[in-house]
Amino acid sequence: MNEATLAQLKILVERAVRPVHASAACKRKMREELLAHVTGVFEEEAAKTGDERAALARTAERFGNPAELTGELQRSVSAGDAFERFWDWVWGHPNEAALWRGVRQASLIAAFAAVFLLATVWLAAIETSLLPAAILQPGAVALGFAAVWIVCTCLADGMRRAVYPPNGRVRHRAAFVTGGAWLIFLSLVVGLPIMLGWEKMTAVEAIFMAMLLPMWAIGLLVSLAAIGAARQRAHDEWAGLRIDG
After folding, report:
1. Where does the pLDDT of residue 182 fall: very low under 50, low under 70, confident under 90, or very high at 90 and above?
2. Domain ranges of the chain
């Protein structure tokens, strides 16, 4: 089977799957199962006729009306898939601007942190006079973490574009992103102890904060970039198919 024939089989599958309202994971499973099915049908028809074009036509006939199959697939989507769709919304579309994705995720982080903070204050039954101090510092940390997350999202997207571009790696861009990430996280770990009142640190703690944490953060960025690249490839493999006509 050549690439052109495989692309035609994928188009058959995509005509049925693309209109389905479901999570990316659910659609991926549908595509895999249907592609395996139509590939088996095609190989069976090709063995009978010895003609790939005729086998492809017979496969399309046996596949049936894509619109009808779309309805069947939609009815098969479980109610629990709504949770997966929520996470699809959180992580965003692969082609979405990294800044907006980071702002959305940071807003959710700040919202959850605010709920946790209020619940903690209520459960602890802190005196009224101590409420400002009890809320201000954790709230500032939560907002700071949200801001850091936005920066991380943008840096991870830049790392993805540098290390996993369609036409090969762009080394100077990857080095630029890595260097920028190092400086940003180094500034954060130097400033954080001052913000939180940790002026006195041992030499071991200072080395750990200044070296190991930025290295861990860069490793996190590379991991996020790899995940983003995998999502991008999975999206492009099917989204690029022209299913009309």
Report:
1. low
2. 3-84, 93-236
